[in-house]
Amino acid sequence: MNYDYVIVGAGLAGLTFARIKADEGKKILVVERRSHIGGNVYDSYNNDGILIHNYGPHIFHTKDKGVYEFLSRFTEWNDFQHRVLSFVDGNLIPMPITLENVNKLYNLNMSTEEMKDFIAKKAEKIDEIKSSRDVALSMAGQEIYEKFFENYTKKQWGVDPKDLDTSVISRIPLRYNRDTRYFTDQYQGMPKFGYTKMCESMIASKNIKIMLNTDFEEIREDIPESAQIIYTGAADAYYGYKYGRLKYRSLKFKFETYRMEEYQEAPVVNYPNDYDYTRITEFKKMTWQKSDVTTIVKEFPCDYDPDDPEADEPYYPFPTKEWKDKFALYKADMDKEKRVHFIGRLAQYRYYNMDAVVRTAIDLAKEV
Amino acid sequence: MNYDYVIVGAGLAGLTFARIKADEGKKILVVERRSHIGGNVYDSYNNDGILIHNYGPHIFHTKDKGVYEFLSRFTEWNDFQHRVLSFVDGNLIPMPITLENVNKLYNLNMSTEEMKDFIAKKAEKIDEIKSSRDVALSMAGQEIYEKFFENYTKKQWGVDPKDLDTSVISRIPLRYNRDTRYFTDQYQGMPKFGYTKMCESMIASKNIKIMLNTDFEEIREDIPESAQIIYTGAADAYYGYKYGRLKYRSLKFKFETYRMEEYQEAPVVNYPNDYDYTRITEFKKMTWQKSDVTTIVKEFPCDYDPDDPEADEPYYPFPTKEWKDKFALYKADMDKEKRVHFIGRLAQYRYYNMDAVVRTAIDLAKEV
Question: ipTM for the complex?
Answer without folding.
Answer: 0.84
